[in-house]
C-alpha cells in the first residue's frame, strides 16, 4: 500500500467539515494515521455504558466503523462517499467503565472499488482486545 494521502490534520479538518455529527464534539481523537493503519481514541463518558456497567455494543461498533473510515481516507484521500458494505464484530470481553476506548485499524486489502480491514478495540491500557472487527468499504468512482 502507498503512503498516506491525508495527514492527521487534514483528516481532522475534512471530518469536522464533512462529518460533523461524528467528529465535531471532541470525544474522538485521531492519534495516528499513515495510509495503512490508524489509532483512534474515544474519551470515556458514562453515555458509553450499557446497564451492568460495560461499554455498549453500539459504542464499539460505531468506533470500529469510524476507525475504518479514517484509515481508508488516509489511504485514498478525501472521498466522503466511501461507505461500509459489511461490518462483522466479535465481542471478546467486557470494556471497563472509566477507561477510554481505542480503535486500532489496519487495511488488509485496498482495491479500486473495495477495501477490507480489521479493527481491534481496546479498553484503556490493556493490551487484550475487547472486540475484533472486520469490515469492507465500497469506494465510489471519483
TrEMBL record:
<keyword id="KW-0812">Transmembrane</keyword>
<keyword id="KW-0472">Membrane</keyword>
<feature type="domain" description="Thioesterase">
    <location>
        <begin position="52"/>
        <end position="124"/>
    </location>
</feature>
<feature type="transmembrane region" description="Helical">
    <location>
        <begin position="66"/>
        <end position="89"/>
    </location>
</feature>
<dbReference type="GO" id="GO:0005829">
    <property type="term" value="C:cytosol"/>
</dbReference>
<keyword id="KW-1133">Transmembrane helix</keyword>
<keyword id="KW-0378">Hydrolase</keyword>
<dbReference type="InterPro" id="IPR003736">
    <property type="entry name" value="PAAI_dom"/>
</dbReference>
<dbReference type="InterPro" id="IPR006683">
    <property type="entry name" value="Thioestr_dom"/>
</dbReference>
<dbReference type="InterPro" id="IPR029069">
    <property type="entry name" value="HotDog_dom_sf"/>
</dbReference>
<protein>
    <submittedName>
        <fullName>Phenylacetic acid degradation protein</fullName>
    </submittedName>
</protein>
<dbReference type="Pfam" id="PF03061">
    <property type="entry name" value="4HBT"/>
</dbReference>
<dbReference type="GO" id="GO:0061522">
    <property type="term" value="F:1,4-dihydroxy-2-naphthoyl-CoA thioesterase activity"/>
</dbReference>
